Amino acid sequence: MEQLFSYGTLRSKEIQRQIFNKVLTGTPDQLLGHKLKSLQIEEEFGMADYVVVVPSKDPSDIIHGVVFTISDTDLAKVDLFESNAYKRVQVTLESGAVAWIYMEN
């Protein structure tokens, strides 16, 4: 099983049903020393606004999100869902948990 930290779209129950065919149960957590940056991604019907995690020079910057425990198969589904504007990396969260997160590519 893998830990996945979500700070945006993947927290949506509708998106979870679309990707995993189920709703995930998660635990609130935070990522320190990072911030969110606006990002435009071209989609089927035009440009869409999203956010992406980037490292911050301020160690007190916090991103609030949710940690989900998912299977390797489900993690591969998320890789397909996320655009190539993101890369998957492991981070250590405020709780001490090590989780995958999608950051700026």
Automatic annotation (TrEMBL):
Pfam families linked to this entry: GGACT
InterPro entries the record matches: AIG2-like_dom, GGCT-like, GGCT-like_sf
Domain of life: Bacteria
Domain Gamma-glutamylcyclotransferase AIG2-like positions: 4-103
UniProt-recorded name of the protein: Gamma-glutamylcyclotransferase
Lineage: Bacteria, Pseudomonadati, Bacteroidota, Flavobacteriia, Flavobacteriales
